[in-house]
Design brief:
The longest helix has 30 residues. The chain has two domains: 161 residues, no CATH class; 136 residues. Helices cover 69% and strands 2% of the residues. It contains nine helices and two strands; from the N terminus they run αααααβααααβ. It is mostly helical. It has a two-stranded antiparallel sheet with strand order 1-2.
Length: 320
């Protein structure tokens, strides 16, 4: 019965591959945007604008006039979570209504949908722990995971359903994976840098106790390693004639350089809030560019449709 209802709905409300991919792209944009607004909450010291969770106050689910602008900012960020979740739900519905049914899309769409409330719960824990810097960092990294899954869904929608075929030799695929791992480590260490710095999200919030100069140097070292690996990938991909992969690695290097410039300028100008916010959004772009490079090292071939078997001449009946 459920299958019949699903088929009927899909027939009445068909979803094209173009619409499905646009919705998936909107999900990526929305998840990046909520990272930006989350940065606004922290950089305006509005992290405890709503001092409890899931309510905004002990008596109200919404902010009150007495809470001022900090309450507006924090509650506004919470509201945006519902908008991001609505887009993710729309993607799931579109996947279910799309015909023909595509293999592997539904698990990714559900991963994004359920990742958003999980990320919101971690956000609530940050409030309940008075903005513990380690939990704040986990909150940011959870957003990165959701963005990565949303990107995988977007790319999968654009791929055919055939087998995955490498476009570069095995050693270069291994180097690409190493670059992804280094990129992830740079994101993690970046949260430690943030946890040691002045932008705690609230004037009374604790810091992680790490020495800001030492951990910033470790973060910079990781960035230099990432940049070196990315440049090496450009030359390696060109050497084997993998033009698409070389272009993706070039984009990655360009994004890394832009992010690096913002990082160094913010460090030497005492971390102005505007640049710190731009650096947070830049982290999302580095992640997306890194994943784009990894995807360029493989491709999916169109699925082969088996032709109906034809009887051999010996099997063809001879008219009497």
């Amino acid at each position: 019965m459920r299958r019949i209802c699903a088929v009927t709905l899909a027939a009445r409300f068909p979803v094209s591959a173009t619409l499905l991919r646009r919705l998936a792209f909107a999900s990526i944009v929305a998840n990046v945007a909520i990272v930006g607004t989350g940065g606004l909450v922290r950089l305006t010291a509005s992290g405890l604008g709503c001092p409890t969770w899931p309510r905004c106050t002990d008596e109200s689910y919404v902010n009150t006039p007495e809470m001022g602008v900090h309450g507006v900012i924090e509650f506004g960020n919470r509201l945006l979570t519902f908008a991001v979740g609505a887009i993710a739900l729309a993607v799931v519905v579109a996947v279910l209504l799309h015909r023909p049914r595509r293999q592997g899309l539904l698990p990714l769409a559900l991963g994004v949908l359920f990742g958003i409330p999980a990320q919101a719960v971690i956000g609530g824990i940050t409030v309940l722990t008075d903005l513990n810097p380690w939990v704040v960092g986990l909150h940011f990294l959870a957003s990165m995971v959701v963005i990565a899954v949303a990107y995988a869904l977007w790319r999968r929608i654009g791929d055919p359903d055939g087998p995955v075929v490498p476009t570069v030799p095995g050693p270069l695929r291994a180097l690409a994976r190493l670059t992804v791992a280094v990129s992830a480590s740079v994101l993690v260490v970046g949260t430690w840098v943030t946890g040691s710095g002045p932008h705690a999200g609230d004037h009374g919030a604790a810091r992680n106790g790490l020495d800001p100069e030492t951990i910033s140097q470790a973060h910079a070292d990781g960035v230099f390693l990432l940049l070196g690996l990315s440049v090496a990938l450009i030359f390696a991909f060109r050497a084997v004639g993998a033009a698409r992969a070389a272009r993706a690695a070039t984009v990655l290097v360009a994004v890394e350089l832009g992010q690096g410039v913002i990082g160094f300028v913010q460090y030497f100008t005492d971390l102005p809030a505007l640049l710190v916010g731009a650096h947070m959004v830049g982290s999302c772009l580095v992640l997306l560019a890194t994943l784009g490079m990894l995807w360029s090292t493989r491709e999916r071939r169109p699925a082969v449709v088996a032709e109906p078997s034809r009887p051999s001449p010996a099997e063809v009946p001879v008219p009497a």
